[in-house]
Amino acid sequence: MSHLSTNLVHGDDNTFRRVPDVIQPINVTTTFSYNNDPDKLVKAKDIKEGVITTRDPVYSRLSHPNSSKSEAVLEQLLDGHVVVYNSGLSAFFAALTYYHPKVLAIGNGYHGCHGIAKIFTRISGLKQVRLDQYDQLGPGDVLHLETPENPFGTAHDLSFYVAEAHKRGAHVICDATFAPPPLQTPFDFGVDLVMHSATKYFGGHSDLLAGCLATKDIKVKNQLVSDRTFLGTTIANLDSYLLLRSLRTYEMRILRQSSSAEKIVAHFATNKDKYPVLHKIYHSSLQKEDFIKQQLRGHSPVFAIELTTPELAKRLPSRLKYFHHATSLGGVESMIEWRAMTDPGVQETLLRISIGVEHPDDLIADLDQALSSLS
Ligand SMILES: *Cc1c(COP(=O)(O)O)cnc(C)c1O
């Protein structure tokens, strides 16, 4: 087996390589001409289940060359069968549609996933319970575990929750957006469906929206692809091209961003007393539980800090040179967000920080001068 960095560049070499161009074109077409040989035409009722992703493209709501190519590369990365969507939330919507549980156990985490769960509660009476109420799950229900979890970057014990859910016949979806491979590989812990917002690290350049689901079961993929055709949530043409371009450099970016974040967190945790305005730092690298070492081979490039007052938290972003004050994460550019701007349920002293690919020493110096100027 070749290595991840090689597979990210070559994993799609045999998928829809239709022109000699090294960089495959952006296909703006919505429809593709059928074969000109009448003997090669296949009737819809004779098409075997699940061949949508391998047959020639027909109509771009089903699939198109760069959507299939990005799936081929993501299959190398996630070590499962992958279905790509036009956003992370479309992927989560597809997952809940597929399982259609009566009860959903869900933690804090990304507010948008709660928005999707609310839609299911409205249209089909889905009952939502907290993560620690897993004893209310029954056969066919779902436990949705986001780890590490937004916005603090806190890791949860996958093995524990998978065992509790499976004991009751429930499925486990893991939103692993904050620590994608090789930092964390949820299939190793028995998760049924892995979800990512590909808008974040897989895209990595803050210029595309995408999401994906990964499964070990080809039958699940076939159903998800069929559902996606009718939900109309396939990744867009330009976005799939950008995603494919981004995946080529993914491994370099994630390893750099992860090691920089760990270094920056360690610096401010060790020197916390130098900054009277710095109240708290949250990151999985500061967690002491036993499962952390088994579950995480590297830490998320996202962490959070609390300052001593909401007023100081509101001012810190404006004092920074290298951090954009914006929502989102995963891009090559570092970002900071006063979380009260997007999350109504969070303490107003909280700032979420996403580390990019800049030199970590420059980022430390920038945070140092900004925190010192407020002290
Ligand atoms: C951003 C994000 C999502 C939603 O993804 P979109 O691509 O914005 O739809 C879901 N979960 C987590 C943890 C995220 O960070």
Keywords:
34% helix, 375 residues, alpha/beta, seven-stranded mixed beta sheet, 11 helices, 15% strand, binds pyridoxal-5'-phosphate, five-stranded mixed beta sheet
SSE blueprint and pairings:
Layout: H1 4-10, H2 65-78, E1 81-85, H3 88-99, E2 103-106, H4 111-124, E3 127-130, E4 142-146, H5 158-167, E5 171-175, E6 193-197, E7 211-215, H6 218-231, H7 237-247, H8 250-270, E8 278-282, H9 291-295, E9 302-307, H10 310-315, E10 324-325, E11 335-338, E12 350-354, H11 360-374
Parallel strand pairs: 2-3, 2-4, 4-5, 5-6, 10-11
Antiparallel strand pairs: 1-7, 6-7, 8-9, 9-12, 11-12
The structure holds pyridoxal-5'-phosphate.
Residues 87-89, 110, 112-113, 146, 150, 175, 177-178, 197, 199-200, 209, 211 line the site of pyridoxal-5'-phosphate.
